Amino acid sequence: MHLESVLQHTFDTRRDTKKIFVAMTHKFTIRTDKNKDGKCLVFLLIRSGKLKTTMNLDIKIDPKYWDNLRCRVKKSENFENFNIILDTIEAKIITIKRDFLIYERVLTPELLVENINNSVPAFDFISFCTFHSESGNYKPNTLKAHKTAINKLKEFRKEIPFSMLTLEFFEKYRKWLLTYKGNKDPTCFTDFKILKKFINLADEKGIRLAFNKDKFIVKESKTTPVFLEPEEVGRLHKYYFNEFISRYHFLPLGYFLFSCYTGLRISDIQNLKRQDVEQDIFRFKHVKTSNDQYMKITDELRSILDYNPKLFIDRLSDQKINKQLKNIADVCKIEKSISMHVARHTFATTFLKNSGSIAKLSKLLGHSTMKHTMVYAHLTDQDALQEMRRISYSKSEEEDEQINTQSPS
Fold first, then answer.
1. Domain enclosing residue 361, as ranges
2. Residue 177 and residue 318 in one domain
3. Is the pLDDT of residue 401 over 60?
4. Neighbour-count burial of 310, counting CB atoms closer than 10 A to its CB (0-12 exposed, 13-18 middle, 19+ buried)
């Protein structure tokens, strides 16, 4: 169906049954007061029922050159440039009104001015996500996650109008991430959590969605976090203190072991300075939650810090650290894909296996709620099952003989 037909069909079927399209008039006019140069400010006047708003255009002219009938500047200095600006705004208003009508959004004078001023993308989902991500007050790591998720979406389709978004669309996109991109379920969960955020924001902004956003449910897949056993950490510890350790491994492994002893995220480790860790107990602020916390340097960790004076002075990117950790695992014969977050998992499981409480672990990890910590409780289930051997209701023959011998005749 051609655009004109779509517009006509939309207008004919909706203008009477839904209060989507509200009559709105606009015109360019000038203020009555003059500045010191005798010029008046040109502005846009918008009316919709009893609602009225204005938008200053930063154009000043001598009132004798204003054409009240045409609402344009008469022939004078810069009149052509001024009129081009007014014509451009006029065309933009028509486009905005058309788009709001097609997507069944209620257009108010304030929204019209906002769309003229900011060019807020309200009809292409990718542009919408990009705009609100860059203009929002997000932390660097959050912005980085947004950019990754948006770039993948852009790779899937260059443009995605809101009308294309359906639950079926997101299911196809998820399959594409898993098969074509080779992403794992946790990565998909992170990406979809970000998309869900922008879907909710679009709904708040009044953008009409082609599906029920409440049915767009993002579930975290139940996966077992990777962690190292004490013997595996011991191998890394031994390699760290080996005089033949690769110079490319020394710094990344030092940061990894630091996280194994403290449970700090890589973002928090990257924020620390050497002077912070020189103290036995130091205070830091979580990058993710902005919560303040204290952490202790144990004797074993102190020896690691003292052995490499460049720790928390020389820096590597997250990507370089994680890349080198995979090489370190190969050298140390550890058949697990390790990253800095594996060190955090290792700290948590080791703490619980050594009879640490889940509540105290939650404090040490800086979790905002206990539910985030409960995932680690499942990691010690296998250890608990080993203790089942303590339960027995049948005696061995040897035990029966001992009982009979001790019984009175």
1. 230-387
2. no
3. no
4. exposed
